[in-house]
Amino acid sequence: MSKPLLDLTQLGMSFPTPNGDFVALKNVNLRIQEGEFISLIGHSGCGKSTVLNLVAGLHLPTSGGVIVDGREVAGPGPDRAVVFQNHSLLPWLTVYQNVELAVKQVAKGQHKAWIREQVNHYLELIQMSHAADKKPDEISGGMKQRVGIARALALQPKVLLMDEPFGALDALTRARLQDSLMEIQAELNNTVIMITHDVDEAVLLSDKIVMMTNGPAATVGEVLDINLPRPRNRVALADNPEYQKCRQAVLRFLYEKQSHTEPSTKDKKETQIASIATAKTA
Ligand SMILES: Nc1ncnc2c1ncn2[C@@H]1O[C@H](COP(=O)(O)OP(=O)(O)OP(=O)(O)O)[C@@H](O)[C@H]1O
Ligand SMILES: [Mg+2]
């Protein structure tokens, strides 16, 4: 197999707390090839965001390391762009200007015409050209999230990191954004790590689903290859036996192998996944 673009080796992370160190992650090993779409799934608090933050370079690991394209991660860098759950657009700039800011970071002496062309290209990609001159508070949550994605893509990162990018959106907007993300991925062949709590979202979008065990000392429990052909269509997949097999495997991991026993450890997000799971399996 070719050299992975991303290599997480024996990654460990402890946080200092008043009661001593809290071991969030232990021995996380993961290899990701260029162009792969990976979802990280696991119960709330297991350490998904910690993994993503370590890849982003926002935290440094207490053991092991992350290698991106042959270089060890020592801090944040333009080769890794992050999209958070709550879009973080600059409110005083228009949609156009928010994307332009990212384009200018990679422009390196390019002409104004090139910058304009790039901004327009990314706005078209997320179907937001019509709202280019609007400010963030004049557009919907789903639109803001799309602009956040455009901004991240405009940085032309080697790896796109997404922490529950669609978590705050309604189901219909979410479905539309998943479809546009699949189209963009087909066009640009980005390498993506996405955190999600939604089993269907993970199966629909991913080449591999990485399932994490519960913390403390969380690690990779199972990795599931999703061999469904692309382009994928959510309606057609609903009756696909391979799709059903994949979602059953993830549900089984989450609710049989890693289920929480004490109700006190359940938080809102977990209850949310549980209700999605029961609704779908009922
Ligand atoms: N700065 C910190 N100091 C101490 N503990 C931390 C810190 N950041 C995270 N943790 C702990 O590490 C564990 C993993 O947290 P993390 O945010 O990675 O979980 P998560 O899987 O992303 O959860 P969620 O699905 O709720 O977003 C949790 O127990 C959390 O309390
Ligand atoms: Mg998180």
Automatic annotation (TrEMBL):
Gene3D superfamilies reported for this sequence: P-loop containing nucleotide triphosphate hydrolases (3.40.50.300)
PROSITE patterns, per database record: ABC_TRANSPORTER_1, ABC_TRANSPORTER_2
Keyword field contains Chloroplast: no
Composition-biased stretches (Polar residues): 272-282
Compartment(s) of residence: Cell membrane
Molecular-function GO terms, alphabetical: ATP binding
Bias type Basic and acidic residues, positions: 259-271
Membrane association type: Peripheral membrane protein
Keywords, alphabetical: ATP-binding, Cell membrane, Membrane, Nucleotide-binding, Transport
Keyword set includes Methyltransferase: no
Main location: membrane
Domain annotation ABC transporter: ranges: 6-239
Family, as annotated: Belongs to the ABC transporter superfamily.
Protein's name in the database: ABC transporter ATP-binding protein
Organism of derivation: Vibrio agarivorans
Organism placement in taxonomy: Bacteria, Pseudomonadati, Pseudomonadota, Gammaproteobacteria, Vibrionales
